[in-house]
Every structure is written in structure tokens, then in C-alpha cells.
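step 3/5: co-fold with protoporphyrin IX containing FE
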Amino acid sequence: MSRFHTLGNRLFSCMEKSFNLGFGNRWNPFYHLGSLTFFFFWIVLISGIYVFILFETSVGHAFQSVEYMTHEQWWLAGVMRSLHRYASDAAIISIFLHMFREFFRDRYRGVRWFSWFTGVPTLWLTVVLGISGYWLVWDQLAFYVAVATSELVDWLPIAQGSMVLNFIGGEVSDRFFTLMSFLHLLAFPVGMVFLLWIHVSRISHVDFVPPFGLAMGTLAALTVLSLIAPAVSHGPADPGLAPTTLHLDWFYLNIYPLIDTLGPGWAWGLSLSVTALLLVLPWLPPQRPEPVAEVNLEACNGCGGCARDCPFGAASMQPRTDGKGVLLQSVVDPALCTACGICVGACGASNPYRQARSDLTIGIHLPRFTVDELRRQTDRALETMAGHPGRILIYGCDHGAGLEPFREPGVEPITLPCTGMLPPSFLDYALTQGAEGVVVTGCRSGDCHFRIGNRLTDERLAGLRDPKLFTRTDRSRILVHWAGAGDRQRLGQQIRRFRAGLEDPNGSVPVPEEQA
Amino acid sequence: MKRLGAILFQIGAYGLFCALVYYWSVNPGYHYLQPHEAEIRVAFKHAAQLKEPCRQRTREELARLPPNMRSAKECSRERSPVIVKLLLDGTFLTRKTFPPPGLHGDGSAFIYAKFSVPAGAHHLEIRMDDSLRQPGFEVSEARTLTLDPGQLLVIAHDVERQGFVFH
Ligand code: HEM
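step 4/5: write C-alpha cells
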């Protein structure tokens, strides 16, 4: 399993690297697969509303109304119909990439199981939504889908059914068609909104909207596709005809050839087995739990930084229990905490200048890597590099480019669980206590293992978010360069250039190149 | 130059994405039937005969029953399975048994089978046995007909006519 993970992780890492070059980190579609899917759903919704205005929900007229849209009012209704289809197809690609990516990047186990687990039913609902849409066109494909779906339903012992008799050997009733329209136009979409709300309910700072450029690029591309290759129907549904060649939408209708070749029992068996496997995947094998963040009430001043910045909604502010003069205190829900340490970086009391003669205690701490330990490691590193020219301290994370190879006289790396755990005051501390420069690195910009650690760090260093970097701190002696597992060489180049700049008092410190 | 490269990359990526979307939205074509084939489906619901014959109750038995339940006959609820045979040009296409559904086996059996056959003239014969108590196939019907390529022929049982209809 872990080999499989590594392989997939490398593949994604490689693709994302090239997309960072072409799209830039901000617009990289791989970093926005969830929000891109939301965006596709928006396109589907808006185009769907327009198509519905011209659509006739009856067996007798549905086909003709779709034909009208496609051939008569092709310039608007036709484009809308095509957008409706192609955005739905695009959503399947983005959902699968999103799912595989979360899997290979190992962001679906431990306390993160919930988003994965609740993602699986959305997959079903998306497919069912698509199938019911194909039904409404009431062409030969729709007829085929209706009959084969009935075979699937009839196979179920609870159905004891003969649903297929609604479609063959007699008149198809309008009532069935109305039911299908109700499901596709109302029931399934409402169910989808509900499921997606649950899907992201356990995380905070959710990326619902893709960056503008990416959204517009995708919309433009799908519109061009709709104009070049508009979606068309098969011939009208005819209960006296069996289809010969069908142009199936394989994104949604791939189960149907399986029903024909293996039978409905196998089709059910296979889909349910894959679903069951997906559902239990977060526990295959279970992740070894890390000790979660703990609140130290004595030191918690109720500032709320941890609750504001926690990417998983694990920290929250609740009424004070110790009678101290402030109203609120931090509380950590262990079932949600990923032990990333971002709360530590957000804690207003996380300041290495405090408690210089004793252990550094703050309002919230990570047992596996306390802020006191961070200060100790910083002190040790500063001591080790003392006397060397171009003294650089590198702060990085467990999931970015490995830092050990950069260790050399004058260069000391410190690896945190997540760079978002680094309180900005530590940069000032390192610079005033002997380092000539500080490098901050971690997962690639836009892609943090703990979702938003590098974004929060950027904002804190830019003074846009608390805790901010002190205004007195010399920014020219700080290099922020986000670098993932495959970017060590590039990070090395940046560090060398930075160091050379520091060593040359007359030269200016080079501004890092575009991030990759 | 770098910017131009990025723009070309994006155009390529969007193009590839759309190509994938388009290709799999209609391709590859799925050949449900070959061009020279037609399809026959047998599809109907049928309440078969009761498995056991009804029994006349004795006077004593009737006397023991509450007055509102004194029907002269006692019938078990379970129905016979339905056996359907379909012959095309004298050879079997199928011989299938459809058990009655329901906890007590008293529901109407749902008979469903489908076949693709070469288009053209055929002699079709369908037989149905719906009673375990009577030997042989009680209902049967034979037809000679010509199936067009791509035609869907549905065979169902017509209760009123006690025979089969070919749609
Ligand atoms: C129907 C389509 C889906 C949509 C619109 C969707 C959307 C999203 C969004 C917006 C996020 C939050 C991303 C962020 O801000 O970091 C997310 C996270 C996630 N999704 Fe989905 N998702 C969908 C389907 C799925 C499926 C099918 C799976 C897997 C079976 C899945 C697994 C996950 C996981 C594991 C996370 C990450 C949670 C974490 O970081 O702990 N999603 N999804």
C-alpha cells in the first residue's frame, strides 16, 4: 500500500510541478480540484435552469423540445445544453482527480476520514444525477438507459419489480417521466447540496471558489467545446426499436454495458464492492494517531488565534472554566485534531523572547513538538552555526523538500510538523540571536499537507494576519521559498543565492524567483 | 518568452481537458446489437396456478371455525413456479423457471428474458407451464414473422386471451 502511495504521490507531484510552471501556483488546477468541482456544478446549475425553461416535461414533447434547443436556438439554448453536459462530464474528471489526489497525498486517514467517507455517497449521487439527466432527453439512448436501469432495479429482491414493463410492450406513462424530472431537477440536486455540506462540514477555511483566472479559463474552454462540438441527441425514443450503436457518455453510463454483458447482479455486486472498498479505505491500514494539541489553560489568554486558524475546526473558543478574568478559553476536539501545530503558530503567546529563563509555555501546545522544543532547537542551531560566515537557519516542514541535505557549516535546518506552526516572532528571534538570514520553506505554495499552513504563514509574514511579523524585523534577511518533495534542487539554488547575497554586504539580497 | 510558454501550456492543458471530456462523452461507440441483429424480449407478470389443490373442509372443521371464516374450501397460498420455453426455428433459446415472489410464494412471477437474434424470417414458439399439478405446457403460441434489423419484439402473456401477444 505504501509503495502504491509513493508512486501515485510522485506522479501527482510531477504533474503539479509542470502545472505550476504553466499556470503558476495560484491557478494550478490540481490545487483546486474540490472548488473546481463546485464551479462545474455552478455551470451545470445555471445552464440547467436555462435549458429547463425551454424543456417540456412530457414523454410526447421532451425530445422535440431538446431538438429545438439544439438545432433552432443553437446559439444560446444549444450552447447551454452542451455546457450542461460537458460541465457534468468535467466534474467527473475533477472529482476522480480530487479523490485520487487526496488518497495518494495521504489526506484521508486518521481524523481526516470524515471528508473521505462522506465523499463516497456524493460520487453515487453525482452518477445518479447524470443518469437521470440522460433519461430526460427521451431519445434512443434515454430509452436504453430507462430499460437497463429498470433491469437493475428489478433485480433487487426488495423491488420484486417489473419496472421494465413501464417501458417495453406498451405505452410509456407520463407519470414515470414526471417522477424522473422531479428527481433530476429537484430531489437529487437538493440531496447533493446537503451531502456536499456534510462533506466539508468538518474542515474550516474551505476553498469553495476556484481562483478567477482558472474559473474563467475553464468556462471559456467548455464554451468553445460547446460551440465546436455541440451535444446532440440520438434518434427519438421508440419502444419498437432496439439500439445498435449507442454513443454512451462513459463518464456516467459506464455501468450499462456491464449490465448487458454480465447481468444486473454483477453490476450491483461490482459497484457495491467498489463502494465498500472506498468506504473502508481510511482504515486500510488505520493511521497511527499522533498526540493531539493540548490546551494549557494557565497560559491561554483567550485570544482565539488557534480557533481562527485551525484548518480542521478542531480548536474552538468556549466559556472559561477556570474563573480567570477573560471570557473564553480554547478547547481542542481530539476527534478533529491532525496534530499539525498550526494552532501553536497562531497562539498570541507564542513568542520566544518570553520566559527566557524557564520552559516556554503557551496557551496551546503540541506534545510531539512543543514550542519550547522549537526554541531549544533554534538556540542549538544558532550555537552550532556561530562564527561561520553566511549563517542561515532554515525552517521547514515534514511534508516539503527534505532539509537535512542542506545542513553544512553555517546552515542549520529545523523541521516542524507544518510550517504553519512557526510563530513569526521566531524569525526575529533567530536574526537577533545570531543568524544572518532565515529561510522559511514547506509544501509548495498553494498545496499544504495540512491544507493552509503555508498560506497562513505568508499572510502572517506579510502582516495581514495575526500573529504578525514584527515591523522592526529586517525582511531582506528572510527568504520564503515554498518547495515540495521534488523541488530540493531548486530550493538549494535559492538558498545558495540568498546566502551569497548575505555574504556580499555590497550586493543586494536577491529576490527569489517565481515559486515552483 | 516564459509568459508565452505559460500561455501555450495553458491552451494545451485546456485543449487536452476538453478533448478528454468530449471523447468520453460519446466515444467509443457501444455496439449493443450488431447491424444485422434484432432483439426479442419476453416480459410480463403472471400469477401462476396454486401449487396445491384446494381442499373441501369437513362439517366438523367448519363448525370449529368462527362463523365469519367458514369458507367451504381451504387453499394454501403458494403458487406454482412459471416455466417458460422459447424456441427459435425449432431450437431452444431458453427454458427458464421463474419462482413466485413473496414470503409465502404467493406473488405474481415476473418473467423476463432477452435475446439478440439475426434479423430475417423466423419461426418463434413460446410455451408456458404455470401449474405443477398439470403436466406439460398449458399455454403456447407459435408465429412465423420477419424481424427487421434493430427491431425490438416484445412477447407478453395476455390473461384475457389466455395466450401470448407479440408487440
Ligand atoms: C461531488 C464532488 C465533490 C466535491 C464538490 C468536493 C469538494 C471538496 C472541497 C471543496 C474540499 C475542501 C478542499 C479544501 O479546502 O482543502 C474537499 C476536501 C476533501 N474531499 Fe472532496 N469533494 C467531492 C467529492 C469527494 C470524493 C468522492 C472524495 C473521496 C471519496 C472526497 C474526498 C475528500 C477529502 C479526503 C478531502 C480532504 C479533507 C482534508 O483535507 O482533511 N471528495 N472536497
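step 5/5: annotate
The pocket of protoporphyrin IX containing FE is lined by residues A 34-35, 37-38, 95, 98-99, 102, 107-108, 112, 115-116, 119-120, 122-123, 126, 196, 199-200, 203, 206-208, 278, 451 (CB under 6 Å).
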